[in-house]
Specification:
By secondary structure, the protein is mostly beta strands. It has one helix at about 5-25, and strands at about 30, 35, 70, 85, 90-95, 100, 105, 110, 125-130, 140-145, 145-150, 150-155, 160-170, 170-180, 200-205, 210-215, 235-240, 250-260.
Length: about 260
């Protein structure tokens, strides 16, 4: 199991991971958002069966009970602290020559304009800008791990039915959830071929703040990688991917939280 001991290690890992993603995708003239040659499906994925893997994480870990992922008010690159929850925000792109990404590498929240803040409760949010990427695009994301005494396993979010967040653009981003079946073994996953096709959903942002809700049963893969079933009990990260067709991008995200199952749809 890979140990994310610092944000620097996390960022280096994600650079290698996403670079491999670009190389792994098959070439096709039918390029669509979410992966080259992706197939768009409207039906939700079926519930995932129990894990059949081996090792200390095979039997799963206790469900997480902290709904807030981050409101960015602490001003750092770590999501809101949950019990045994370890995570790091980062940004990364394909580093096309001449391209731009802000923030680049180590993430830091941005101060909201006075008209959009509500002191002292809402002063910061995530602000991502990207342009000029031509291979796979850019990504704003966080790792998610259950961590205890050196053991790191996928986070169990089965007590929740989805995620919600506030955001503004305009533009399109793809909210995605990384799972062991789409993550290579070198980076704590179980995938050995056709990796990185994580379940997700394309979100079209307006030019003003709105709340967006993404239920787990509406997540779908791009269709170009190894097919997996989504299991909310085994999650390795969440993020917002920007496809090259959606560039240039300039969007804000705030108040990212998991939705308890008891909450009415």
């Amino acid at each position: 199991m890979l140990h994310f001991g610092s944000s620097a290690i996390c960022t280096g890992l994600c650079l290698a991971w996403l670079g491999a993603c670009s190389a792994a995708q098959p070439k096709s003239r039918d390029a669509v958002f979410g992966g080259t040659g992706a197939l768009v499906k409207e039906l939700p994925l079926a519930p995932a069966p129990a894990s059949s893997g081996t090792g200390p994480c095979a039997q799963g870990v206790p469900p997480s009970d902290v709904a807030l992922l981050d409101d960015f008010e602490d001003g750092d690159n770590k999501p809101f602290k949950g019990y045994h929850r370890e995570a790091w925000w980062f940004t990364v792109s394909d580093h096309t020559e001449g391209s731009k990404l802000s923030p680049d590498g180590k993430f830091a929240p941005a101060r909201l304009a006075a008209a959009e803040s509500n002191p002292p409760d809402n002063l910061f949010a995530a602000h991502v800008q990207a342009s000029g990427q031509t291979e796979w695009g850019a990504l704003f994301a966080t790792t998610l791990r259950w961590s205890d005494a050196g053991l790191k396993c996928p986070l169990n979010v089965s007590a929740f039915r989805g995620v919600k967040f506030r955001a503004k653009g305009p533009g399109s981003v793809r909210f995605k959830v990384d799972v062991p079946g789409t993550t290579p073994t070198d980076y704590g996953g179980e995938c050995t071929k056709g990796c990185y096709d994580s379940p997700g959903k394309v979100i079209t942002l307006s030019d003003h703040w709105d709340e967006y809700v993404v239920p787990w049963d509406r997540l779908q893969q791009g269709g170009w990688g190894t097919e997996v079933r989504f299991d909310p009990a085994r999650v390795l990260g969440v993020g917002f991917a920007i496809d090259v067709k959606a560039l240039p991008a300039d969007f804000w995200v705030d108040d990212i939280a998991l939705i308890p199952k008891a909450t009415a749809p």
